[in-house]
Design goal:
The complex is a heterodimer of chains A (647) and B (88). With 647 residues, chain A is of the alpha+beta class. In chain A, the strands form three sheets. In chain A, strands 2-3-1-9-8-10 form a six-stranded antiparallel β-sheet. In chain A, strands 4-5-6-7-11-12 form a six-stranded antiparallel β-sheet, with helices on one face. In chain A, strands 15-14-13-16-17 form a five-stranded parallel β-sheet, sandwiched between helices. In chain A, helix 11 packs parallel to helix 21 and helix 27 packs across helix 28. Chain B has 88 residues and is an all-alpha fold. Chain B has four helices and no strands. In chain B, helix 1 packs antiparallel against helix 2. The chains are: A alpha+beta (647), B mainly alpha (88).
Chain lengths: 647, 88
Amino acid sequence: MCGIAGLFGDGVGTREDAGDMVRMLDAIAHRGPDGRGTLARTGAVLGHVRLSIVDLPGGAQPLEDETGDYAVTFNGEIFNHVELRRELEARGARFRTRSDTEVLLRLYIERGEACLAALNGDFAFAIHDRRRNLIFAARDRVGVRPFFWTRGARRLAFASEIKALLALPEVEARPDPLALAEILTLWFPLAPRTAYRDVFELPPGHVLVARPGAVEVRAWWRPDYPTLAEDAADRRTESDIRDELAAALREATRIRLRADVPVGAYLSGGFDSSLTTALASEFLDRPVETFSVTFEDAQYDESAYQREIAARFGTNHHPALCRGADIAAAFPDVVRAVERPILRTAPAPLYALARSVRAAGTKVVLTGEGADEVFAGYIFKEAKVRRFCARQPSSAWRPALFRRLYPYLPGLAAQSPAYLRAFFGMALDRVGDPLFSHLPRFATTSRCLAFLSGDLRAAIGAYDPLQALRERLPERFATWHPLAQAQYLEIAHLLPGYILSAQGDRVSMAHAVEGRFPFLDPHVIDLAARLPARLKLKGLREKHMLRDALGSRLPASVVERPKQPYRSPDAAAFFGDAPAPYVAEALSPAAVNAAGLFDPGAVGKLARKCAGGGARGAGDNMALVAVLSGQLWARDLAGATPLARSA
Amino acid sequence: MIDDIETGIRGFIEENFLFRSDGGELARDASLLEAGLIDSMGVLELVAFLEDRFGLKVADADMTPENLDSIAALTAFVAGRTAASVAA
């Protein structure tokens, strides 16, 4: 787990290129405090900053094979490297190190692009293949590890974070108006677009093959599901699946505990992370180090459940209290880490948590992330109820079901049936829209667009992020069950675009902490994808099959507790008793005008409403966080490079 | 008096839900829901405003889009309730 960077093109390899590589690695030094390597070759310079986890003495990178024809720079982990090494050795391969990096390189030399299918891991890597004069780069299936690239007149450049690319003289930090429209509608820029013009993300499950003057990007893996007919014909019951699922998740956890340093676990107190903790404790011969965020406000805090699980599994528990002021204090650094505007403060407590993990001497943590998306969690219940209502739009009592969906939202509990129908009944006539499941969420989010400046709105014009997303959907999408369609949107887009990046890699690696995700193991994903929809979401029982197969390992209070999604105070964090001084400055008309992203009058009204404690709804809170993060991001843009400012 | 009611309601909506001032005036009968100006908490904010500003009690049964979903509907609702309480 580390940071990577590279330059490639005819004539690349000069002293100037090597100097640029130093600046690139400086910009991502936080990802790899344990070592640094640069390899200048004819036509390419590869760089690496190392967080040493596997093969501490032998894992230095970039790594060349013994012929010098191939060299790799690799960020991530190949969890099944032990088994792959054994297979390669059986066929005569000899290894110089114990590292998974060498296994990856060997496998590529043996199989080329086909090596990817054998990898069970979270990875982003680039191999310079000197024989064929190309760069072969690839990213893991769901996008745990990041990979960004750009191309100038002379060379291709790539890196784990955009800030490394902004360190290059040919790359200008300019906002992409269409990306901002996407963020303020979908929560994320639609890969390969990033918030920066001419800087691209390699989408999850994609490869990039660069030859001098040409770049080709294509998918090597996509989530896939049974057709509607196959789903209906699947007669399996819980007992047919239970053991296989439990075994797959145990194995996914076991190989994710492989490391030459201790592996800890994030423990939110919900079902998913409690299960991760339980499974980890089955394999470790010492107490699991567990780490939790706690909040003062009871509507966000889950510490009672965290303590219960910690006691049950005898973990060495580390709670970290996160106050509103802590969120506000960390927020500018969080924006610098995530490199774009965001809609929620939720990454900030995770940023602070990773800092405390690192301070406790832990480099690697398991997390429960991905379970909701893979096994059909609470996020999918709303669409099911909306489809149910769409069958009888005039029903007086069906809308009352919406209250059951979000018991933690006070605004809904107090709502009349007429308004419940009005809010959730939106677009009930659009059940044929491939985005049906997500339309209410996108509608709420897109209220933020009203805050964009006139110039940006003009630049965005008629561009419709929803249509752009529809056009990205695979052909098979239309053949899937509606639940699988909604899962695809989450796994292929929201998970990498927001959860695994803004709440994942970027905030944990800011402190050189590696997250590992048992629920995102490829075998677990495949097995879950093949489950019939009726067993994923049984009635409105979310993650039914996961609870059925593994719930017995946890206290009933945790298995059956109502879902409490991870949330943190948003607008309120910035307008407490002693607001951080940067907030008023960033939201001032002068700063808003100077940045050019937002409308100063609208921002002024929003700021007044928030300061007066009037922002209670999701729309206002998202708008405030979007505007404030956008302003901080613009301030970073205005500096030469984001990281240069903080260094 | 109706004008005062409407002005007060419009001011509250412009300041708290519309935010922008460069898009022209919000039409009297424009749906707040369809314009994307109001969410579930927004309805509660609106009700709290009506109760504070006009001294009304808004019953659960009155919390319907028919009563609350446009400046015109809100004005008529408040005027009707105010007149009813004066008459009583």
